[in-house]
């Protein structure tokens, strides 16, 4: 629970074809006589932001380091968070999460929705683990130019909402090394979308 609201939900579902009334009949087209497990971990939509900062001819990515209990590791990942309010303000949530986790305040108008470039059939969202979880991600991009002092101030900054149990440390890494630096699926997906959007000329020009 998030206060009085439902946060995460786990349930078992029977999959039924509305036309035939048979359980798992659609799945049987692919796996004969096998029943697909219907355990669902429902956590809803979330957002993550790839922050790229240009400084002195080098592009840097801003990551957060947090303890992730399920994998028993400290993970370097993109600033991210759940869309856990009732307003459905995806971009606003992304900007708010960045500020909470890094201390950076981003201009809403400078944030680019990378998932908006996907084909409409995808719903323009990505699904990190659709085999067991309904979570869908909106991946965003922010690019800016900063002085070297800003990079220095960000490196190692401790942030997070302590009353939410967040203990976060900020890391700044060269973008060219990002794909080898993190095991975070959000970051790797964002890199792929960013590189393809850049290749196809879909991104707005970087502002001075």
The gross shape turns out to be globular
Radius of gyration equals: 19 Å
Question: Which structural class matches the secondary elements?
Answer: alpha+beta
Number of distinct beta strands: 10
Residue share in β-strands: 25-35%
Mean pLDDT: 85
Low-pLDDT regions: 25-35
End-to-end separation: 44 Å
Please give the largest β-sheet.
8 strands, mixed
| Helix/strand order | EHEEEEEHEEHEEHH
The count of helical stretches stands at 5
Helix fraction?
10-25%
Keywords: Hydrolase
InterPro entries: NUDIX_hydrolase-like_dom_sf, NUDIX_hydrolase_dom
GO molecular function: ADP-glucose pyrophosphohydrolase activity; ADP-ribose pyrophosphohydrolase activity
Cofactor: Mg(2+)
Describe this structure in words.
The chain is of the alpha+beta class and 208 residues long. Helices cover 21% and strands 28% of the residues. It is built from five helices and ten strands. The protein has helices spanning 25-28, 90-102, 148-154, 178-181, 185-199, and strands spanning 9-12, 39-42, 46-55, 58-68, 73-77, 80-82, 111-113, 137-145, 158-159, 168-174. The strands form two sheets. Strands 3, 4, 5, 6, 7, 8, 9 and 10 form an eight-stranded mixed beta sheet that branches. The protein is globular and about 65 Å long.
Tags for this entry?
8-stranded mixed sheet; alpha+beta; 5 helices; 208 residues
Question: Helices, strands, pairings?
Answer:
Layout: E1 9-12, H1 25-28, E2 39-42, E3 46-55, E4 58-68, E5 73-77, E6 80-82, H2 90-102, E7 111-113, E8 137-145, H3 148-154, E9 158-159, E10 168-174, H4 178-181, H5 185-199
Parallel strand pairs: 3-8
Antiparallel strand pairs: 1-2, 3-4, 3-6, 4-5, 4-10, 7-8, 9-10
GO biological process, one term: nucleoside phosphate metabolic process
Keywords: Hydrolase
GO molecular function, one term: ADP-glucose pyrophosphohydrolase activity
């Amino acid at each position: 629970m998030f206060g009085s609201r439902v946060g995460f939900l786990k349930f078992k579902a029977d999959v039924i074809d509305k036309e035939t009334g048979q359980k798992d009949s659609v799945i049987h087209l692919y796996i004969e006589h096998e029943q697909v497990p219907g355990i669902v971990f429902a956590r809803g939509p979330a957002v993550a932001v790839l922050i790229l900062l240009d400084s002195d001819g080098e592009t840097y990515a801003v990551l957060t380091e947090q303890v992730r209990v399920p994998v028993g590791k400290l993970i370097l990942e993109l600033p991210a968070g759940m869309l856990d309010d009732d307003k459905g303000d995806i971009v606003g949530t992304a900007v708010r999460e960045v500020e909470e986790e890094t201390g950076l305040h981003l201009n809403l108008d400078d944030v680019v929705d990378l998932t908006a470039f996907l084909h409409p059939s995808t719903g323009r969202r990505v699904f990190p683990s659709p085999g067991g979880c309904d979570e869908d991600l909106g991946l965003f991009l922010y690019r800016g130019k900063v002085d070297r002092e800003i990079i220095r101030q960000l490196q190692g900054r401790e942030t997070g909402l302590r009353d939410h149990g967040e203990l976060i440390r900020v890391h700044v890494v060269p973008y060219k090394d990002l794909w080898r630096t993190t095991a975070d699926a959000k970051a790797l997906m964002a890199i792929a979308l960013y590189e393809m959007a850049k290749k196809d000329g879909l991104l707005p020009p970087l502002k001075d």
